Amino acid sequence: MATYKEIFGTNIEVLASDPANPVAGQVWYNSTDNLVKGNAATTVGAWATGTNIGSSRYLSGGAGTKTAALVFGGEGPPGLIGSTESWNGTSWTEVNDLNTARVGMANSIGTYTATLSAGGNPVSALNESWNGTSWTEVSDLNTGRLYFGGSGADNTSAIVFGGATPPPTAATESWNGTSWTEVNDLNTARRNVVGAGKLHNAALAISGGTPPSSPVVANVENWNGTSWTEVNDVNTARGYGGASGTPLAALFYGGTTGSNTGATESWNGTSWTEVADLATARHGLSSAGTTNTAALASAGITPVARSNNVEEWTGAGSPLIQTFTDS
Fold first, then answer.
1. Would you state the pLDDT for residue 78?
2. What is the pLDDT, as a whole number, of residue 43?
3. CATH class, range 46-314
4. Looking at the predicted structure, is the pLDDT value of residue 300 above 80?
5. How far apart are the C-alpha atoms of 35 and 324, rounded to whole Å?
6. Where in the chain is the domain with CATH 2.120.10.80?
7. Where do the H-state alpha helices sit in the chain?
8. Which of 99-103, 108-112, 174-178, 310-314 is predicted with the least confidence, judged by mean pLDDT?
9. Which residues are bridge partners to 87 per DSSP?
10. Long-range contacts of range 188-191, CB-CB < 8 Å, 24 or more positions apart?
């Protein structure tokens, strides 16, 4: 029988803590815990209950990752709120409010220390920049809108697309840290669209609606920095969903088809696959996540009420650290 060293080229490591990014099959001895551990990558993705945010809300903005996120604005109760909360992977902390309370802003722009809060309801062109401590008003959008998608690395480069003005719009704008520039429109004008992507030159525009002719559409478009191209549709058309990831690896979850859904779909750059549903069906989610293997779904609205519920997604292929015992 082959030894561990013969297979992996090294003896079992002795480490003071678990490695941050173990590879599948890696085994080590944790000298702090006095345990032998190993990594077997997860084979099936699943949502798990997370720590609730402090304020129930829906259609709020969101940014960041599964372990470092920001939720801001939205609708109460009561009414529009400017409340901002920061997530450090363990707990939520109230930080400085938006200057102008709003609902229906773009998700998926930037990080928990550098993001934008653009547009919103009532239909607005307002734009605020977050520097990790406070919000500052910066240059407005060219087209005021709400319920639209976004993508961006931080608060210095982003795009926004679609939304309601109030009629559905295909307008797309690019942000350079100083001003917005109109660029090529979506092929299909729609509202309630959600974006996945962490760059201003690479994004997905997912699903949404084109009322009154079509309440929801399954259309997905890919942005390459210059123009939009139609790619494969989602399996379940819906509006007001949440999304995380990139044009090559995205996750689309929740929303409404006319009634709330917890449906979750994973994108591999070519097609969508249905995976495990959210535990709580809802729409108007706040999204965070840079891949389709790790995401955060916060708040939203259920048939009962506005929610402060949070769920954490661990996708197939994510590390699954296990402890070896003699039993």
1. 85
2. 62
3. mainly beta
4. yes
5. 7
6. 46-314
7. 4-8
8. 108-112
9. 69, 92
10. 188/217, 188/219, 188/221, 189/162, 190/162, 190/217, 190/219, 191/146, 191/147, 191/148, 191/162, 191/163, 191/164, 191/239
